[in-house]
Amino acid sequence: MKKDINNIHDKSYKDLYSNKEVFIDLVKEMLKASWASELTVDNLVLINKSYISSDYEETESDIVYKATIGDKEVIFYVLLEFQSTIDYRMPLRLFFYISEILREYAKNDNQKSYDKNITIPAVIPIVLYNGKKVWDVPQRFRDIVSGSELFGNSIIDFEYSIFDVNNKYTKEDLIRNKNISSAIFLLDQKIDAEEFIERIKAIALFFANLTDKDRMVLKHWIGNTAEPQLAEAAKKILDANKEEVEKMVANNAFLLKQMKEEAKKEGIKEGIKEGIKEGIKEGIKEGIEEKAIKIAKKMILRGKSIEEIIELTEVPIAEVKQLIKELQKTNKI
């Protein structure tokens, strides 16, 4: 149903939240932090810089904003995490990224060691994750520190915010929110094509607060992440009058049936491919094991010790002993 490719999601979300209005919507409506009301398009600056280490360039990306709230500087660090497996090192990795941001800030700000009034900006870490598994990584840094309870405030601590797209929000919650980020999360949850169209219908009927710009952003995101046929149908429904929406959804029943059939065929084809691959792997494995047993037999006949045989062939000790018994029965040793 959706183009299940990490870097497509990566780029789509990066494009999405590089839009100041959409980012402000995320922190105001989804994070619901008290300070979020102070953010405006005018006091928010997108920083064209990534802090992702080379090990993670293929599976994630980041967005960095700088803002001035009153006379206070703040940096927002948004990590877009689209790995299928959860990385339990996340608090430590965020610590490294935050440290690098502040190290760079101190260098560029030309801070002096004798300045009693030295200050640094607050760095707000945010993780956006769309994997299937529930995100169960500790959100506080001190929770991964061994013996943290012994040292009180003597250890470094911070807490990051997590947007777990698939598990933190129900369909009903997102529809009630009626904002652009809720619409995106609603469509990015793990759903089939039929449910995708149902959710497009809900957005078309109930998300009256979306501006023309929001709708344009949403359609662009759909075009980047959904299969072409489905994306085209979704865009038409979003453009339709409310009176036409129900009819258009009903008219898409044939398209959905066709897509289900294609997905089923693709699944069977992939299953056959995987079966062949596994068969080849199993055959190779069996061939290697058979050869190892032949070598083990030869070594037994040549009087080699059990330890030598196991070390060279990696045949289990029980199997080597069984081979010795069989050869003894046939009077070969």
UniProtKB/TrEMBL annotation:
Domain Transposase (putative) YhgA-like span(s) in chain numbering: 8-214
GO MF term list: double-stranded DNA endonuclease activity
Pfam families, A to Z: Transposase_31
InterPro entries reported for this sequence: Rpn/YhgA-like_nuclease (IPR051699), Transposase_31 (IPR006842)
An example Gene Ontology biological process: DNA recombination
Superkingdom of origin: Bacteria
PANTHER family (alphabetical): INACTIVE RECOMBINATION-PROMOTING NUCLEASE-LIKE PROTEIN RPNE-RELATED, PTHR34611
Protein name (Swiss-Prot/TrEMBL): Transposase (putative) YhgA-like domain-containing protein
Organism whose genome encodes this protein: Clostridium grantii DSM 8605
Upper classification of the organism: Bacteria, Bacillati, Bacillota, Clostridia, Eubacteriales
